[in-house]
VOC family protein
Amino acid sequence: MNEETMAENTEFELRGVNHIALVCSDMKQTVDFYSGVLGMPLIKTIELPMGWGQHFFFDCGGGNALAFFWFPDAPEGVPGVSAPKDLPDRGELLSAVGSMNHIAIDVAPDKIEEYRDKLIAKGVDVGVILNHDDSEFGIAPAMQEGVFVRSIYFKDPDGILVEFAAWTRELGLPHDVRHEPKTAADRTV
């Protein structure tokens, strides 16, 4: 983004996301997936006091980390509540208020096809490449001028939805921020 289009935080000097902490059912399986399949270096491991569990951190690029807790007594996740039931290109996006819907990891735009093929070769179930745009359904059938991000979705061993996302243009232009925010009164539940 250039200085003309970049929104400015006048309250705090924030530098990005330090880490996002998720919960896994099997830390070894999580390490195998994030380090072995996705290649993220494991950069810090913590044994929590009093047998509470573990907290491991993976480098996900750009000075950012993805972290996982393992709790011996964590309840099972509920598909469609704690995370979407399936991939967005298969018609699933819903998750509960307060849940983490998905984690999006930034990748270069010219790598999306290559990374999709690479994940498939590693045995990962990956959705189709989505060209997100501002059309009625938010997806263009092919790359075109209105596409602002291209992405692929897949799940980790615990069903956490992961996205490789590639910005295709700068955001923050006047037409990018034009919708009125909905309120709790707009909910149908």
Q: What stands out?
A: The radius of gyration is 18 Å. The helical segments are 27-37, 112-121. The chain has a mean pLDDT of 90. The longest strand covers residues 149-155.
